[in-house]
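>> Question from a student workshop board

For tomorrow's exercise we were told to take the sequence and the ligand below, predict the bound structure, and bring the output to class. My setup keeps failing. Could a helper post the expected result so I can at least see what it should look like? The ligand is PMV.
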Amino acid sequence: MYKKDIVKAIVNEKFNNKIEKATAFAPANIALCKYWGKRDSELNLPYSSSISISLANKGVTTSIQILKSANQDQIILNKQPVSSDTSFAKRVTEFLNLVRPPDTHFLLDTSANIPIAAGVASSASGFAALAKALNTLFDWQLEERQLSIMARLGSGSACRSLWDGFVEWHAGYDPSGMDSFAELYPEQWQELRVGLLILSNQEKKISSRNAMQQTVTTSTFYTSWLAKADQDLTKIKEAIKRRDFPSFGAAVESNALAMHGIMQTAWPPIFYSLPETVDAFRKIWDLREKGRNIFFTQDAGPNLKLLFLNEDVPYIQQIFPNIEILDPFVK
Ligand code: PMV
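>> Workshop helper replied:
Here is what the output should look like for this input. Compare the format with yours to find the bug.
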């Protein structure tokens, strides 16, 4: 099954373009129980379900409009034109091709209000904002579930960037992926805080797409990861419900370490951590030994996201002076 068939089934070739321009915002999201590995890499279908926390007003705003007499798309990122031969422009154009009416080109203007180096700004919130903007531009009137599937076709984790707060992505079983979508996990945890700890601005050497594939195809422990992800998802959801921060933090951190552990069992091995990352692990483990409830999670890069409660904000600021602290449930 191809992406084009899915888009056809969802939007039913409806291109009702009455408005000039549509703009949408989507928050960045951080996985608490990670998605690592696709059972279908064309449709971005995961092997396991995942849960994330959105970062409220931190994310991507995208405007899309139809260009009258142009022969190619124009893409602007953070106010700078992006050349069509960059991997960013190629990914965006490939997505736009799925919904492009004949002889149509777009002007896409996108900006992120979160540091790209944090590894949380780019693809997830970007494709979610784009799917939302296209929904308005073409008046598709998609339901949330369909919109989530559309965003997933751009980037897997984008399907979780359509809501604030906790969001669960159901892996699904169907080869069409029509049952692989995200939805709100309707719990509000007002005291929860996320700290972005930027340890390096270095570009990642291997994309999450390639790293996942390498892990699935070469790691003999991949099925152990799936069993653990399944257990962690339940633990994390239950801990959220009980507002049990120590259990929540332990399950989140252990899940991230297991994902990175499984990558090290791939061949060639994948290792996103830098010495600074490992130093930060030790610092956090030391703080925990001293009785502080501080945990971390790590995605496909060397930077960390710290999880703690509001009461520890002054302490965290003192220990990590450069940290950016976000309140996921701020109105
Ligand atoms: O959707 P992608 O290709 O950006 O992959 C996301 C991978 C992780 O951030 C490491 C995990 C996740 O569930 O977001």
